Structure formats: structure tokens, C-alpha cells
Amino acid sequence: MQVKKIKVNRKKNIALVAHDHKKKELLDWVKRHEEKLSNHNFIGTGTTAALISNETSLDVKRLVSGPLGGDQQLGAKISDSKIDILIFFWDPLEAQPHDPDVKALLRISTLYNISMATSPTTADYILSSPMFNEEYEVEILDNEYSVEDRISKNKWWIILYKILAQLLKYCKLKIYFAN
After folding, report:
1. Residues acting as catalytic residues
2. What does DSSP say about strands 13-18 and 85-89: parallel, antiparallel, or unpaired?
3. Cα–Cα distance between 167 and 45 in angstroms, integer?
4. Which side of the chain, N or C, has fewer Cβ within a 10 Å radius?
5. Which of the 8 DSSP states describes residue 130?
6. 39-96 pLDDT, tens digit each
7. What's the CA gap between 143 and 165, in Å, rounded?
8. pTM of the model
């Protein structure tokens, strides 16, 4: 797996997401840290984005609701290096209809090496980091290289498949004519 370095700007792009039973907890956390958060950009899924925008001074760009594709929209933004931090208060005790999307969002966040908090304590750690208000470099998956690498590896499989197909066809002809 090839990696590349990208610059994370001083002004972070922060995704805010919370499951239904965790929305109040995220809202309370945001209110406690509103001043510290105010210098950054925000994006969120459905109701969470609307709730935080309405209840605080933060302007949160709204995507669709998580179960309707919002988690996937965030995942796409993460893979395009448009999200620096994911604050995702998910509910581990409640089954979600979009559990595969939730798992995919957590997976892509880890794969692209973005800071991620899933509770108030881990979110506090991110906020208290000296890196929170500073510019820094991070290594992420080089998805351009990965695609090219997979294509070149698949070329050999395609060639091998064609050779084997021709060989099988030839063998069947010999068996057919032998009988």
C-alpha cells in the first residue's frame, strides 16, 4: 500500500454525526466547546447538522440523513481529503438500519488516517491536541497509486484467463475429435 503526504490546514473541516440517542450528547459537547470550534468548517448528516446549526452559532453544511446516504456522502468526502476530523457519537447499544454504512464510514476514516472521536472523551482529546489549531502533514492512502496498481495486477490475470480459456477450448477440441 502506497501512501502520500497531505497538508491539514489550520482551519479544519470537521464532520459532526450522531445517532438518535446520542444527538443530545453531541449537542451538549458542541455547546461546551463552541468558542474553540468556531474557527473551523463543519459538515454533518441530516438532523444532526440541522440541530447543531439551530442550537449554536456554528454553520454546519447539511448532507442527507445517515440512513439515506449521508454516511456514504461523508465517506466520499473523506476519500477526497475534504474532511480532517470526524466526530461521530454512535450508539453501540442500538442496532441501526444502516449498520453497514456506519462500519464503512469508520473503516474509511481509519484507512485515510483522519482524526476520529466516538465519545466526548475522545473528542476532548482531539480538541486539546496542539495540532487542533495548527497546520500539519499526515500520511494517507495514495488512492491514485492503488487504482493503477490494481489495474496493472489485473492485466496479468486477464491475460492468464485468456490463455487458460484458449487452452481449455483446444483440449476440448482434441477430446472431441479423439472420440
Report:
1. 71
2. parallel
3. 54
4. C
5. G
6. 999 999 999 999 999 999 999 999 998 888 888 999 999 999 999 999 999 877 677 7
7. 32
8. 0.78
